[in-house]
Model the fold of this input.
Amino acid sequence: EAQVTQNPRYLITVTGKKLTVTCSQNMNHEYMSWYRQDPGLGLRQIYYSMNVEVTDKGDVPEGYKVSRKEKRNFPLILESPSPNQTSLYFCASSPGQGKSSPLHFGNGTRLTVT
Amino acid sequence: GENVEQHPSTLSVQEGDSAVIKCTYSDSASNYFPWYKQELGKGPQLIIDIRSNVGEKKDQRIAVTLNKTAKHFSLHITETQPEDSAVYFCAASGSARQLTFGSGTQLTVLP
Done:
């Protein structure tokens, strides 16, 4: 089944403790992206990747890192999480370049930072 | 950059009635306008999209209309059913490199 898989689905952590949220897609998509969803703010892009070893900042990149060493994986790294990063996170992939092609989303990771 | 405004933020309709969600955008260079549906506990899923060379597109009970002059586009759902209850997001491509999403509409279909 074609899908985008995120792990974990739920994560509770403390301020400053480094964490990684994994994302993997099995559709051979070149484009991958991370979003955060907050009430009343919709989906805001954190980082995106047009291809292996090519990453770029989205609208809200502060406090996040990403890497794209393989085509299928695009982990999101929070080196020193803070409470304002408590949110619902989504990974997405696309067969095109993301801007004008359908996005395939994972089922989300709900992160709570205390 | 692109700015997308979505209204209303919540919408309740009786089963069988129609629902309309509207979005406006600011960047005249936008040429791709998708709509996503997010069910509880899941990620958004594309339900319909439209490109700027088309004024309207239909897929069974769902339709999207685009008015490029006024810079707005709308999602129309006819004969609503309980399974249509979800959060709906519009988006626009803009001249920047990535999509900009609206803030979402919680649609509730009352039995």
Q: What stands out?
A: The interface with chain B takes residues 4, 33, 40-45, 48, 56, 58, 90, 92, 98-100, 102-103, 105-108 of chain A (CB under 8 Å). The CA atoms of residues 56 and 75 of chain A lie 14 Å apart. DSSP finds no helices and eleven strands in chain A.
